[in-house]
Amino acid sequence: MLGRVNHIALAVPDLAAAVETYRTTLGATVTEPQALPEHGVTVVFVTLPNTKVELLEPLGPQSSIAAFLAKNPAGGMHHICYEVEDIIAARDHLLLSGARVLGDGNPRIGAHGKPVLFLHPKDFWGTLIELEQV
Ligand SMILES: CC[C@@H](C(=O)O)C(=O)SCCNC(=O)CCNC(=O)[C@H](O)C(C)(C)COP(=O)(O)OP(=O)(O)OC[C@H]1O[C@@H](n2cnc3c(N)ncnc32)[C@H](O)[C@@H]1OP(=O)(O)O
Ligand SMILES: [Co+2]
Description:
By secondary structure, the chain is of the alpha+beta class.
């Protein structure tokens, strides 16, 4: 069911500083910041030869990134995003397997304009999983 790793996401308390670290210290190519109020984040992608790193800063009072940073003030790895060909088939398989699909269970449009779903970290060895249909 799983395809490539689309991105690994890091929650950061200061997006501008994190972008500077990736651009200058690590010599990586980064995108312009993109505000996604419907997801409660501002996002920058670091583009790598084999995948992407997604830098996430909280946007708005209900942001799940704000909750994560309250527990991890220095930031840290927030989720891993795997590609799937058919997100509805993947969701239905996961629900039948007993996994918790977050939200109302329906895919939302993510940062790449594609449908995404999130799976509860307690069902996947402490790691929040995002699925993106490609
Ligand atoms: C940019 C758009 C999009 C894209 O296209 O790429 C994105 O990536 S948006 C990214 C932000 N959106 C989301 O994360 C949506 C899904 N997340 C959630 O629904 C919630 O964050 C959550 C995973 C259900 C956590 O909810 P919260 O209320 O913040 O925390 P809890 O205290 O209820 O957490 C329960 C339990 O899980 C642990 N936890 C929380 N977050 C993570 C995490 N990122 N990784 C691993 N574990 C996590 C938390 O510590 C709790 O554990 P215990 O303390 O042991 O109970
Ligand atoms: Co993501």
